[in-house]
Structure formats: structure tokens, C-alpha cells
Write a structure and sequence with these properties.
By secondary structure, the chain is α+β, with helices and mostly antiparallel strands. It has two domains: about 5-65, Orthogonal Bundle (Arc Repressor Mutant, subunit A); about 80-250, Beta-Lactamase, CATH 3.30.450.40. It is about 50% helix and about 20% strand. Helix 7 crosses helix 9 (about 175-190). The longest helix is centred in the last third of the chain and has 16 residues, at about 235-250. The protein is globular, with a radius of gyration of 19 Å. The chain starts with 5 loop residues before the first helix and ends in a 5-residue tail after the last helix.
Length: about 250
């Protein structure tokens, strides 16, 4: 939203560029922010000069300075550091499939730790992460998005009432079935989808919850179904989620 302040407009522009799955041309950036085009151009170019954005022939991307600040912030908060060993364990358990951890940031799951091989690079470049906000209501098709919606009843009810766009021909489209899947995700802390997000890919995700049962993050594996659905993977994933949740609980001073 355009709050008509320089700082607010700069943040809006950074948010749009950072959440986009590909470079954002000036016209698209103007449309998404609702800020006048000359103002968007001036602020975006100023941010580019300061390294917060990068201007390519296809549009604006997150700049090296913005990326570095995000990485430093995640590292200093410690969450990504604690999650990394569990992510590595899942990567090995599934014979090299894409393992990840996402933490709740401003109401959306945002990826902060990953482990994947060369075979996953192309998919990662065009993936929905680091934030689920990129796919809007279609997040309920993703295993991680299903966990998020299951812990946000009001948001889930809105999606169920207004609908969502399928991402593949296998995506769930029936409201009754989705409601049952959300209840299952809430009750078990697990969500599973096969080719609903990306053809040829399966995803298994587990909720990371605090002592009050609130969702603080999610950990999961994505890739070839034969490796992810293998015996033992689900139990390892549940153990990783529970152990990580225990580590993330603040200790008394």
C-alpha cells in the first residue's frame, strides 16, 4: 500500500521486488505498489545506486546489499543456524532431495535454511519460495502452505470461501477435501502433496510449533516421490520438527 511517505514507498518497492519470483519491470512494480510511475522509477533507481536493488534488462532484482543484510540478520537471529543440521540430515535421509526450513515472518512462512544438489538448481530458481506470499491463496496447494493455513483459521476460511487457483492438474480443487486436509494438517502437524505444486515433485512437511501450539516454522523435503515416500522418512521428519521446536524455545535468563 502507498502510504505517501518516502520510507513507506521504499519499503513497498523492496517488498515487491524481494517477493517476486522473477525480475519486475517498472510497469509491473508500479502496478503492484500503486505508487505513481515517476516516483517508483526515482526511488527504485536510488535503491539500485545504493545496492539494495539491481536493474537488469528484464527488470528489478534484489541487490547484493539487500541479500547480504537478510543473510546476516537470519544468521544473527540464530534460527537458520539451529535448523541447518536438521535440514542436512533430511537431505541425506532422502538421498539428496531438496530439504528446507521456513520460519514465520509477518504471517507467512519464509525459507531460511536449505540443502539441495545441482539437480534442484533450475527448480529453485523458479520456485515459490522464499515466501509463500508469491502464490497468494494457492499456497494451500503446497504442503508448507497447507500447514500455514491450518494454523490460521480466519485466513483458511477466507480461502475456502473465495477459492484458489490450482497449480497443476493434480492440485486439490474441492473445498470439502481441502477442509479435511487442513484439519488433518492441524491435528497431525504433517502435510503431504504429490504433483499438486510441480509435476514430478512430491513434498512432505512438518509443523514446528511453540509451547502454546502456535506455528513458528515448518521443515520439509521436496523432490522425487520415491525417495520422499520411502519408509522412515516421515518418522525422521517428525523427530527433526520436534527436536528443532525444543531448541527454539527461549531459555530462561
Amino acid at each position: 500500500m502507498d502510504d505517501h511517505t518516502v520510507v513507506g514507498r521504499a519499503v513497498a518497492i523492496l517488498d515487491c521486488v524481494a517477493s517476486a519470483a522473477s525480475p519486475l519491470p517498472l510497469a509491473a512494480l508500479t502496478r503492484r505498489t500503486g505508487i505513481p510511475k515517476p516516483t517508483v522509477r526515482r526511488i527504485a533507481n536510488d535503491l539500485t545506486e545504493r545496492g539494495m536493488l539491481e536493474l537488469t534488462s528484464d527488470g528489478y532484482l534484489a541487490g547484493s546489499r539487500l541479500i547480504n543484510q537478510g543473510l546476516h540478520s537470519a544468521h544473527h537471529r540464530g534460527t537458520s543456524v539451529l535448523a541447518q543440521p536438521y535440514v542436512q540430515e533430511l537431505h541425506l535421509q532422502t538421498r539428496g532431495e531438496f530439504a528446507w526450513f521456513a520460519t514465520m515472518e509477518d504471517g507467512d512462512l519464509t525459507m531460511t535454511a536449505t540443502a539441495f544438489g545441482r539437480a534442484h538448481v533450475a527448480v529453485m530458481r523458479g520456485s515459490f519460495f522464499p515466501s509463500l506470499s508469491a502464490v497468494g491463496s494457492s499456497k494451500v496447494v503446497l504442503a508448507a502452505g497447507r500447514l500455514q493455513a491450518a494454523h490460521q483459521p480466519e485466513a483458511a476460511d477466507l480461502i475456502l470461501s473465495t477459492g484458489w487457483a490450482p497449480l497443476t492438474r493434480y492440485s486439490v480443487t474441492d473445498r470439502h477435501r481441502l477442509r479435511n486436509l487442513l484439519c488433518e494438517a492441524r491435528d497431525t502437524g504433517l502435510a503431504h502433496e504429490s504433483e499438486q505444486t510441480l509435476l514430478g515433485w512430491t513434498c512432505l512437511a512438518a509443523a514446528v510449533r511453540d509451547s502454546a501450539g502456535e506455528l513458528t516454522g515448518a521443515i520439509g523435503v521436496s523432490g522425487r516421490g520415491s525417495n520422499i515416500d520411502a519408509r522412515g522418512v516421515q518418522s525422521v521428519l517428525k523427530r527433526c520438527a520436534e527436536s528443532l521446536a525444543a531448541e527454539l524455545i527461549p531459555r530462561p535468563a
